[in-house]
Structures are given as C-alpha cells and as structure tokens.
Amino acid sequence: MELLNLNIPSWSDMASWIPEAVLAGTFLVALVGDLVVRGRRTWLPFAITVFGLVTAGSYAVAAVLHADPTAHSIMGKLMVVDGMAGFFRLLFIFTGLATVLFAWTSEEIMGHKRENKGEFYYLTALMTLAMCVMAEARDLLMLFLSMEGVGLVSYVMAGYMRTSLRSTEASLKYVIFGAVSSAIMLYGLSLLYGMTGSLTFAGIRAGLLAGAANPFGLLTAAVLILVGMSYKIAAVPFHYWAPDVYEGAPTPISALFSVGPKAAGFALMIRFFYTTLAAGNDPATGSTLIADFNWPLLVAVMSAATMIYANLVALRQTNVKRLLAYSSISHVGYILMGFVLLTGQGLQAILFYLLVYTFMNLGAFFFVVAINNHLKSEDLQDYVGLGFRAPWAGAMMVIFLGSLAGIPPFAGFVGKLYLFTAVMDKQWFWLVIVAAVNSVIGLYYYFKVVKAMFLTRPAEGADTSPLKLHWLQYTVLGVLTVPTLVLGIYFGQFKALADQAIALMTVHM
Amino acid sequence: MNVGLPHFLTVGAILFALGLFAVMSRRNAIGILMGVELMLNASNINFVAFSRYVEHAVDGQIMAAFVIVLAAAEAAVALAIVLAMYRNFGTANADIAQRLKR
C-alpha cells in the first residue's frame, strides 16, 4: 500500500518543487492564452513561456546554489527532489529556454505558412516539465508516466510541420518506435514488480536484497527495461529512429530532442539502475545484484557499438543536420562508458559531460537553424564559403564542432577526459581505446564541415553575399559559446557541481 | 481447475508475444498500433495479477489504471499522426514512409 500512503506534505518539501509547479502553470496559462488570441498573436504564448521558464530557472538556480542536502519527497513516494534532480532540472530548463528563444527567430517554426505557432512554445514548457519529472521519479509508475509524457509531447512536436512529408514521416517513425519500446519496457517493469512486490525503487531494492528475485527473471526484466531506456537515449541497436526524426523534424525541435530527452533518459537510467540494481550502494565496488551475468560487459558492448556505428555512418553524411544526428548518437556511446560500472566517479563524469554536451550540441544545431533561415538548405555543399558570409556565427560553429570533436582547449575535451579517466580507473582499457579511436574518426567528419565553411573555394558565380543573423540568434549562440570555451579551461567549479549532484543523490529512502 | 498466478502470467506472455508479432509483421500503421495496445494490456494483466497474488495490495491495479489512460492518450496522438500521414502520403502503410534515407 505504499502508493496510497500519502502523508501530508511539509511546506519545505513542496517548496522544493516550485520550478515544476511554475512550469505546469506556464503550460496551462500559455495554452489558454493562445486559445484566447486564437493563435494569431504568437508573441503572447512566447512571452508567457519565456517568463515561466525564466522564473522556474531562477528557482532552480537558487536550489542548486543552496545545495540542500536533504531529499524532499514529492507526492508521497512518487518523486524526490535531491541534488541530482536539481542538477538536471537546471539543465532541462536551460535547454527549454534556449530552444524557445532560438525558435522565435526560426523560419521553420515561425514562417508565414505555419499555423498554430503558439503550440510550439507551450509544448516546450510541457516537455521541460516532463523531463524534470523523469529526473525525479523514484517509483515505477512515475518512471513510466514521465517517460511517456516526454514521448507524447515529442511525437507531436516532431510532426509540427503538418503538411511537410519529412516532418510527418519523422513523427510517424517516432511514435511507432516509441510506443513499441515503451510497451516492451512496461512488460519488464511488470516482471520487476511481480518479483519484488513493490513499485517504489526503494521497495524493489529491499526486495532484491532480500533475495526475492529469480536471477533469470531479474535479468529478463532488466534487459527489457534497458531496451526502453536505450530507445530514449538512442543507443545502438535502438537508435534507428533518431537520424530520421532529427532530420525530418524542424531543426529547433531536433536541437531540443538531441539534448533534452537524452539527458532525461540518462537521469532516469542513473537513478533507476544505481538505486535499485547496484547493490551495497558502494561507489567503490559498484557491484550489481544481477548475479552470474556480466552486466557491465553488456553495457560496455552497447557503448562501443554505439560509438563505432554512429561514427562510421556519420562519415558519409552530406546533410549537416543528419551528420549532427549521428554525432549525437556517437556521444551517447561516450556517455554510456561512464555508466558501465555504475561507480560514483563514472556517474559524475556523465553529469559533467551532459552539461558540456548541452552547450556544444545546442550551439551546433542552432547554427544550422540560423543558416537554414537564409539558405533553406542543410546540405554540406551549400555550406561552402559560409565562414566568410557569416564570420561571427561561423567562428562560433567552429568552436562548437571543435568541442564536439573533443579537442583541447574546448569543453568537450575536458568532458571526455573525465569519462576516459573514470573508465580507465576500472581497467576497461579496450573500451578506452575504442573511444579514443572513435574520437579521431569524429575529428574527420566535424572538420569536413569546417573545411566546407572556411577552406573550400566557392564555385564561380556562387552567392557570396554576407548573411545577417537576427540579434537574438547572436545572443543565444554567444551564450552557448562562452561555457563551451570557459569549461575547457576553468572547469573546477562546474565539475564540483556535477560531483555534488551525485553525492546528494538519494539512494535509501 | 484452480486458476492461479501462472495462468494469468501465461495469458499475459501470450498476449505480449502476439502483440510483438503484430508489430513486426503488420505493414499498416494502425495494425502496428493495435499490436502495441496488446503489449500494453499484457503488462496490465501482469500488474493486476501480481498485485492480487504477490503484493496483496492495490498498487499494481493503480498502475494498470494509469497505463490504460496513457494507452488512450497515446492512441489519440498516434492516430492523429497516422491521419496526417494519410493526408500527405495517401496511404496508412508504414513502409511507404521512406523519404528520409541515409
């Protein structure tokens, strides 16, 4: 009867949930506001959403700076707000805000042909809320509901351009693969519930420690659940939807997809696997409860396969958006490395990498949005000479790509360094070698874009007129460039933030 | 015959397998979605059976109720997308949607 045992919540517990409450309110107010103006004055839902995200974000920043070591239960045992939830909440609200601001200047979202443009803004607010809940769930019910919540909003957003064949196809692929993988995961959840008799992570953990589960059943359940979560983070072999969806969806939405749901999927994976299946809760050993099965090896193979496959396929992409889609899959491979042993060090490296990845990946996608406004194309050959047509934005794109490739002194290098060290510490040398080789492959295709932009001479008669970007685009790109540069040199504080988030993660309650 | 937990689990497993088979073999997007519904309901049977025989409480039944609501929401979104696809492509066959290729 754990679920029904809802105690009267204390004010301090509810106060820690203010950002989510604000996001929920933002969604509702923007939705009604859009209805009132009948979808004509798009600035109203836009302004409400920006205001809501900024308000929620400032509460989230205050919570992170405060570093409250107590974990707050929200709605009984359904959710918990602790250090890790606070860290991810900040990441999601930032992603949502950056996307909303950039989308305001995007032709794909705001073009004259589009109808119901306000939809985009309140759906982003709703998705941000659902992602925050994903990082807070500590019950199978909330785990499933939040994942489906993010999923349902994403399916709708992928099909935003209703009359476009590409966009419709993207949303169809997304909804079919998404529905199937979540149904598979739900079956795994039901088996886990059956073996332990509890829906809460803590109850499942207690049941597993008491030896309630049959090892084969537990393995089946864990693999089925891993399928559902791998789909969410787009890890090989459950990645096949990602390139199509990222290419077909409007680019600002692809930017959101490639960062938000992925980070949320990792948050959920960390909390679920670390607090239920990792026994003893000892960061040093990180042993798992799945006896007689080499669980780390399974994740390691998945991680290596993701890196190798995505990087090799990315090599022959000629569409920059699709290239970035494969690049984002390959980054999932790198991040999964930190997940292999479920050690505290690995998880800290994951969080730091996700932070860095948010800045650099959003930046690269947003550059594609800005260019698409002018060229109406994402083909690599149309990028020839762009570095001279839009020098500032081009220079920023080089920084984002250099960081994605992981070369010093950019932030991506430091992120990779921490990941590699964490894996090295546990003697997974082959995995580090695979990752290092893949970083080199990555260098090639990222610099293919740089080469087209700066080094290739445009064909005779090609348009070389300068491109003028909207001031908001320069601002957002600049805001993303600063951390991409600064985190490569001055990362101590931010690494401490990630460490603190993992240290403050609740395991027992 | 005494009906117990194994019977429910067997029905659940058969339903899940049938749903997965439908998902993999159907070309029509609506057929695929019907397969997904079968898979979700297979899990619901498991949840309800486990809550009766293992937990002796109602958590699993609450979960099943939420899953039913969610399946309805998912069907609404998915059918809207299939409708948009039918308008754009003139068919509801999922394999026609192959414009995005590497």
Fold and architecture overview:
The complex is a heterodimer of chains A (509) and B (102). Chain A is 72% helix and 1% strand. With 509 residues, chain A is mainly α. Chain A has one domain. In chain A, a hairpin with a 4-residue loop joins β1 (72-74) and β2. The longest helix of chain A is centred in the middle third of the chain and has 32 residues, at 165-196. Chain B has 102 residues and is mainly alpha-helical. Chain B has one domain: Helix Hairpins (Orthogonal Bundle). At the A-B interface, α7, α8 and α11 of A face α1, α2 and α3 of B.
Features:
heterodimer; A: 509 residues; mainly alpha; two-stranded antiparallel sheet; 2 strands; B: 102 residues; Helix Hairpins; 0% strand; elongated
Annotate the secondary structure layout.
The complex is a heterodimer of chains A (509) and B (102).
Chain A: H1 11-15, H2 18-36, H3 43-66, E1 72-74, E2 79-81, H4 83-103, H5 107-110, H6 118-136, H7 140-158, H8 165-196, H9 201-209, H10 215-233, H11 241-248, H12 251-277, H13 295-315, H14 320-337, H15 344-375, H16 386-389, H17 391-405, H18 411-425, H19 429-455, H20 471-486, H21 492-503
Chain B: H1 5-25, H2 29-55, H3 59-89
One letter per element, helices H and strands E, the order of chain B comes to HHH
Provide the gyration radius of chain A in Å. 22 Å
State the share of residues found in helices of chain A, binned by percent.
Answer: over 70%
Instruction: Tell me, briefly, the overall form of chain A.
Output: globular
> How does the major sheet of chain A shape up?
2 strands, antiparallel
Shape of chain B: elongated
Strand content of chain B: under 5%
Sheet of most strands of chain B: none
The poorly predicted ranges of chain B are: none
Question: What's the domain count of chain A?
Answer: 1
Structural class assignment of chain A: mainly alpha
- What's the total count of β strands of chain A? 2
Tally of domains of chain B = 1
Distance between the termini of chain B: 57 Å
Mean pLDDT metric of chain B: 88
Helix content of chain B: over 70%
CATH class of chain B: Mainly Alpha
Uncertain stretches of chain A? 280-287
Describe the oligomeric state of these chains in a short phrase. heterodimer
